[in-house]
Amino acid sequence: MASYALFTEPLIREMLARVLFIWNVRHPASGYVQGINYLCVPFVITYLSDYISIDYEKMGYKKSELLALDNKSLQCLEADIYWSLCKMLEKMQDVYTVNQPGAHKIINKMKEIVKRVDLELYEHIEKNSVNLVPIAFRWVNCFFTREFTLDKVIRMWDTYFAEVENMGVFHVYVCASLLLHLKSDIMKKDFSSLMLYLQSLPTMKWTSDELGILLAKSYQLKSFFHKTKHIV
Question: Which CATH class is domain 101-225?
Answer without folding.
Answer: mainly alpha
